[in-house]
Structure formats: structure tokens, C-alpha cells
Amino acid sequence: MTIYCSGTGSLTTEQLEMYSGRIAAYLQGRDVRFAGIVCGKSPLVYAAIRACAMAHVCFIPIDEALPGQRRSVIAENADILLYDGTVFPGQPGWTDLRDVVLHPGTFQPLPEDDIAPAYRIYTSGSTGFPKGTQVSRGNLRSFLTWFSGIPAIAETKPRSVLNQAMFSFDLSVADLWYSLSTGARLTVMERGLFGDFSAMFRRMSESGAELAVFTPSFAELCMCDSGFCRELLPELRVIFFCGETLRPATAEKLFRRFPGVRIINAYGPTETCCAVTAAEITPEMARQPVLPIGDMRRTAGGIHIVDGEIVITGESVARYTGGVIGGFGEHRGERCFHTGDGGEIRDGMLWFRGRLDRQLKIMGYRIEPEDIENNLLKLPGVTQAVVSVSGKNRITAHVTANATTPEELRRGLSELVPEYMLPGRIVIVEQLPVGGSFKLRRDIGE
Ligand code: AMP
Prior knowledge:
By secondary structure, the chain is of the alpha/beta class. The chain contains 12 helices and 26 strands. The longest helix is centred in the first third of the chain and has 17 residues, at about 15-30. The chain is globular, with a radius of gyration of 22 Å. The mean pLDDT is about 95. The chain binds adenosine monophosphate. The site of adenosine monophosphate has 18 residues, from strand 13, strand 20 and strand 21.
């Protein structure tokens, strides 16, 4: 049976067993604890992630499209860097998975250990460096138990899943680890497909997916084409959304395009393992102005509203790497994560009330404006930088700088931050406006 389908090949259950067994033996034999995997979505990468789970090795996804410097920060703490040479050219010191799977080895199964790290995902950090969240096997188990119990998932028991997100992005935890833990077939879409609707739709139609895990932005993009409808995905039973606001109009259109589909609006930050709440959206709800993000009867942990902020406790609360504390703390004697999200519990549902800080979501990507500002400040000639965001989610940077041009700054910045963090416009100004307490004003506009 085919268990994994990608643009660079597929895997049968037997192949997955064999490859992951060999990679797990290799990792175990070398006492690897943290494995960076340069993460395309090839079959060998999927086998390597499974191998990490088997050998209790922490999987660190490394997006191949990241600028070199940012990639190095993420790779720094890995004992080994694995890559699939059929997809990327390697670099000296990296280990090609094609070589690893040539040699059978002996793998010693391990007893369950909830404390051992399962994976580490890096998000935009306000200091200008990516921020690592380390999720333990216990955190992940808690998520998977909750996820499988969401009524739409429990009742349909999807056997084939469609993935959209990169494996370095928290949303992918839902499809990737659900498929790894249940043996459901996973069909992935690579970044290259997103610019080519006909190729992307071909992949979707071949997937036979019963469950799709999407960001709302992605579904909105797909709906620009009338071909995104029931005929394309005849088996689709559930769409699981997470990561950003799902608009009622998007849900309503999806109900029309995919009659009978069940829509889940889930919520949670990377720091608490993908999602902690989920609300099933009904066609009636889709006619209301806003949608709930969680049904309080079934949450993955404790959900508390403290001074208007959503605070999460329970088994899915993870930690940052390097002893960083950030929003982690205690709530009534329990470890918790202060999300920075405004929220309200009403009518048994959790409602999102916007961010309490400046963090942004653009096409599902999480961005700290200070991350862009701090990286602009690293460029020669830049003395001050302020990033603002328009109502249409367009990023603009205003900088004071000597002897440089916006084009040069853009080029320099692209070597420091991922493409999705590049401002649409960089404007060089003589002086930036200063407000009370001599603080730079950040409400400059476009
Ligand atoms: P990430 O760590 O990339 O998953 O981003 C987490 C953040 O995305 C949360 O703290 C929220 O600000 C936002 N978010 C996640 N799910 C939703 C949702 N269903 N509706 C609105 N915002 C969401």
C-alpha cells in the first residue's frame, strides 16, 4: 500500500518500514540526539522523520529556502544534518540519506519517554534571531490524542491526508504526525506547486484525501479557481484549519464548493504543539460575522482568560530552547504559556480578539515586526528602522540610512530573513517620527 506521495516519489508501507528502520539504526548507532533535516518533502525525508520518532531523536526541520545565516542558527545545535541528495545538493559535513539507507543496521526499540524532545520548530523572534520551541514526546502525544478525538476526525477516521504546510511550520504537525501515528496515507504539496494551479490540482486529485490540513489563506487562494471543488476531491470529509483567522465567507464558500464537508477552525501557537482548541463550523455559523476558534467542552489543555489574554496550561505546554523563558510562566501553580492573543469565552466557545502585541500573521506565517527591524539594523548604513503593517497586511519599512538605496537594503535583508518577511516597500527617510518618551512611532502607515 502506498503510504506517502510526493512530487519526488512515493513510499509503500514496506519501504517506509525498511528506510526508517535503517535510518533509526544509523542515528542510534551514533548516539544522535538532535537531527537537523534539510526539509524538502521527499520520501526519504518522511522516512527520516519517522526514524527520529523511533530512535527518540529530536527532529529539527530546516527549510531549504531560508537564507544561509538563518539556517546556520537553526542548524547550530543539531548533532547531524541529514538531507536527500536526490532533491538538494549537499554541503560538506551533511549526511546524505541515500547513503544511510543503503546499509541495514540493528535498531533497538526504546521504552516510551514523555520527556524526550520530539521536534524543534523555529519561529520569527523579536530579537532578530529565530526562536526555537522544543516540543516533547509527551506534548506531541497529548496533541495527537486530542486531535484524534475531535468529533469530525474521530467519526471519519481519515485514511488519507493532504498536506500543504512546510514541515518547518507548526501547522504541518497535524498532518505529518497524524499520518505517522496512524499509518494514514500522506500526500504532500511542495512549495514549487503553489505557483502552478494545474499541477497543484493534479496532486490534490491524485491524493484521494479524506482530510485536508490548510491555512485559510491557502484555501482562499485555491478558491480563485473554479476547479477547486467537490469533483477535485471527491473523498474530502474534513478540512482542518489552523494558524490564522478563518473568515466566515471562506467557510461559506467551502460549504458550497464541497457539499457535506466538515470544517474545523482550530487554534494554538507553536509553543503548545500545533493546536489546543477547535470548533466545528456549521453552515449557520458561517453566516455570522465571526467564527469561534474553540469548543470549550473539548480542549487539549486548560484555556484561561487572564486580563483578556488567552493563557494555556496542560500537557501540551512546551518550552523554548536555550533557557529562554518568553511567555512561559505559571498560572495557579501550573506551567502555562501566555499566548499574547486576546480572547473571550462566551456561549461555551473560545473567540479570538486579535493580538495584544505586534506579532503578525501573513499567509499563515508568523512574523515579529521587531525581527525585521533588528535585521534591517544589521545592514550597513542603517541607523533606525520601523516596520508597520497596513490594513491589507502589507509590510512597509521606514529607515534612516546613509549611502544606500532601498534596493540595496532589500537585497541585504533577503540574505538575513525568509522571503515572506521582506517588506513590500522600504522607504528611506531623513527622520523617523518620535512620540511620547522619545519612542519611535510605529503607526507611520504605508
Ligand atoms: P503559530 O505559532 O505559527 O502556529 O502561530 C500561532 C498564532 O497564530 C496564535 O498565537 C494566533 O495569534 C494565531 N492563530 C492560530 N490559530 C488561529 C485561529 N484559528 N484564528 C486566529 N488566529 C489564529
